[in-house]
Design brief:
It is built from nine helices and 17 strands. It has two domains: 190 residues, no CATH class; 219 residues, 2-Layer Sandwich (Nucleotidyltransferase, domain 5), CATH 3.30.420.140.
Length: 418
């Protein structure tokens, strides 16, 4: 066993969501949006005057002179400026003339509820009584209290008393209720499985993931994601009025986002568990970092590609694999041409992809699922291909694992009810 300390975010619900608590959280959240907007206006003014985007340090120094800065705990106000500065840096590094810089946080004439981050000086946690005190800024303190007392409840499988250290607490508005997100250092006992088998993982849109362990393959169709996207998009369109999306449309978008998040967690968890059961020590996962810069995929294709959360899925695989003592290596799909290269003989030809899911090599006559062929090419970047002929075998007939909407978990195809 290997002792690891890793960072995790534990989500908890409020159990004392009374009027006063919610009112105070709303007040902090809208103050957070005000700080963001003032900092955003300041950046715009300096940008127009000097032609340069101000660095984080000078921006903080200026914002500290603004009255709204004192609405929050100083560290919380700093976190908002750091987030805005990071967003501008990310936008600038894209070097994309079609991309827009970070905008203002506004909802008509109202400021929306921003996520507020409380660092070391901004909260006091009592895990015994499941309470956390969140500091108010000087402007929002009153004669009743200098803090907001939140009572919380975590999930059945999570207990904050087991964590090494809680570094931050975030208040997050889901669109329906407030949640508390605890950013923690967690100690885990990981199995040391290094030096054993390797697996390749290809990420996609139709099939969320294809996994090859050499002599076994697994396929994770993305049917559940596509069904949710179609359903909630229709709900959103049906409820949009003359003044734009309705509250119900906003609910549909948030509900879709939460379901996608759960789906990605479930799939990544199952991928890592299946690899661990097969003695995998290294996972080579395809990283399609240039795919959005490639050819126009058409109106529908571009929209689906934009919504494809491959980076999120990779990150989930990485941290879940870490807990199992499994290494994860990112493979550049584009440079290796994994989708058009035969994993058996190495021949490269676009014509080998007969149709969306079928790969037939003109040279060695390998027949395979095209996504699994790519996954096997990624696995081979770590370990050479096995010698046996797998044509019409596991590469053509994988084990299919589906997301079960009844249980919220991934299971073999035969165990999931249609």
């Amino acid at each position: 066993m290997v002792n690891l300390v890793t960072t995790r975010t534990i989500t908890a619900s409020l159990t004392n969501d009374r009027e006063g608590v919610v009112r105070d959280l709303n007040s902090l959240a809208r103050s957070g949006s005000k700080i963001w907007n003032v900092a955003r206006w300041t950046i715009s003014r300096i940008w127009d005057h000097t032609g340069e985007i101000p660095d984080e340090g000078p921006l903080k120094s200026y914002m500290k002179t603004q009255e709204c800065w004192k609405d929050l705990n100083s560290q919380s106000s700093q976190a908002i400026v750091e987030e805005l500065s990071g967003a501008f840096q990310s936008w600038f590094e894209q070097d994309n003339p079609d991309a827009n810089p970070p905008g203002y946080r506004k909802d008509g004439d109202e400021r929306p509820r921003s996520t507020i981050t409380f660092k070391e000086d901004g909260f006091k946690l009592d895990t015994k009584h499941q309470q956390v005190r969140l500091s108010k800024g000087a402007n929002l303190k009153d004669r009743w209290a200098d803090f907001i007392l939140c009572e919380y409840e975590t999930g059945p499988d999570v207990d904050l008393t087991d964590v090494e250290d809680v570094q931050q607490v975030r208040t997050v508005w889901t669109g329906e209720q407030w949640e508390l997100h605890f950013v923690c250092k967690v100690a885990v006992d990981a199995d040391d499985s290094s030096g054993e088998k390797t697996a390749g993982v290809d990420l996609g849109i139709c099939n969320t993931a294809a996994v090859s362990v050499g002599d076994e393959t697994l396929l994770y169709p993305g049917n559940a994601l596509k069904e949710d996207a179609h359903y909630f998009r229709q709900v959103e369109y049906d409820t949009e009025g003359e003044d734009g999306p309705s509250n119900h449309a906003a609910w549909a978008r948030q509900k879709k986002s939460r379901r996608q998040t759960h789906f990605l967690h479930a799939v990544s968890k199952d991928i890592v568990e299946q690899c661990a059961e097969r003695g995998v020590g290294t996972i080579a996962v395809g990283y399609p970092n240039t795919i959005r810069d490639e050819t126009d995929w058409g109106r529908h294709g571009n929209k689906r590609l934009h919504n494809w959360a491959f980076e999120t899925l990779i990150q989930h695989i990485e941290y879940k694999a870490e807990e199992r003592g499994i290494d994860v290596e990112r493979v550049d799909e584009y440079s290796l041409a994994t989708s058009i290269t035969c994993c058996e003989c190495g021949m490269q030809a676009d014509s080998n992809r007969i149709e969306r899911g079928l790969y037939v090599c003109e040279h060695c006559e390998l027949v395979a699922n095209s996504d699994l062929n790519a996954a096997e090419n990624m696995r081979a970047t770590v370990t050479p291909n096995p010698a046996q002929d797998r044509s019409n075998g596991c590469l053509a007939q994988p084990s299919v694992r589906l997301f079960d909407k009844q249980t919220g978990r991934v299971a073999p195809q035969g165990q999931v009810r249609p």
